[in-house]
Amino acid sequence: MRLTILGGGGFRVPLVYGALLRDRAPGRVTEVTLYDVDAARLAAIAKVLADQARDSADAPVVRATTDLDEALRGADFVFSAIRVGGLAGRAADERIALAEGVLGQETVGAGGVAYGLRTVPVADAIARRIKAVAPGAWVINFTNPAGLVTEAMARHLGERVIGICDSPVGLARRVARTVGADPDAVRLDYAGLNHLGWLHGLYEGEENVLPRLFADDALLTSFEEGKLFGADWLRSLGSVPNEYLHYYYFNREAVAAYRQAELTRGAFLLDQQARFYATVADGEQAWDAWDRTRAEREATYMSENREVSGAGERAADDLESGGYENVALALMRAIARDEPATLILNVRNGASLHALDAEAVVEIPCHVDASGPRPLPVTQLTGHEAGLVSAVKAVERCVLEAAEAGSVRAAVKAFALHPLVDSVQVARRLLDGYRDAHSGLAYLRP
Q: 173-226 pLDDT, tens per residue?
């Protein structure tokens, strides 16, 4: 079986390759093609993968190319993890938003809108090439904003593109461990959009064990989300929100913390990864350099949010890999080998969530087998959840309209309608700032 990784020079690729190395079953991936527009980054990551595989006699063969069609030919699965504009683009997104006093996070608020406006045209073009060159391939999308990009690609690829994210997986495993349940045996009642969802239930057999969490203050404040949101707010919600909802529920505090930080997250990662790629190019042992960088990256994840809430350092379990790469592997195994799995995925809504139309891509549990994913029944969103999800989906649709029509008006509307941008005038200034900073927004016109 052949896997193509778009964004193959990206820092997280070794996580995916590591999962493939651990997979020993018949029908496993035997060939990996890395595609990237940056040949130097491709070479660095190829060195890391070679180090990873040095003790494996039958590791998947790795090829690298800067030719998209060459990368796609013959692919059974395409894993998309591109970053349009690179980390320099992310850092600019954050800086421009914070200068206006609004959030510039990669997938949330003004930063997410800007990133989507840059990324959707590129993702759309890639989806067209996949349909032309590898029409039988299944596409697993991890490109952020994941739900928005998956919906854009689905306009060409239909059900054959599936979005994944590690946030719901991490949340569910933390809650399960906290209440003494087996993370691999529970059934999850989770619903929303990517980076905007809530865990409504956690079932052992027919019993919802989530009430155990809410009944015990010590348990409720012992894991990441409990520390971030606090026991009182979680009880007020009656559910456990995805960690990214901290940007919504504690927005002013988060913006203040990010404005006071020495570096934004994007600027930190830009500097960190530049050092990593330079180190590998200079000949240092590639795997060791990558692993040190990964550990630092994981330890500092959402550090400003944890500082605001007094959550402290991340738990040791959260610093280990095993998130999205294992979701991707389980998804491929379910489809290619007909090994049924239940996974939280970004897929078309159909009739699942009443607050949204059938074509909207949502993040919900799915049963997956050789025929692909099928959404499972979930608790309907509460009033405030449905309102927030509907508002953000409306923003995503404006981004899709702006990308399709090259419309400045639709782009301004996307910024202005976002719940975390509270002014049409701010929206206009944001778009002006982003157009000045990013050549990738040159397609927008009045």
A: 999 999 999 999 999 999 999 999 999 999 999 999 999 999 999 999 999 999
Report the 10 Å Cβ neighbour count for 128.
14
Quick check: helix, strand or coil at residue 195? coil
CA 440 to chain centroid, in Å, comes to 21
pTM of the model: 0.94
Do 247 and 105 meet the contact criterion of CB atoms below 8 Å apart? Answer: yes
pLDDT class for 56, splitting at 50, 70, 90? confident
The CA distance from 320 to 322, in Å, is 7
State residue 348 phi and psi, 5-degree precision.
-60, 140
* CB-based contacts of 308, cutoff 8 Å, min separation 6: 250, 253, 254, 256, 257
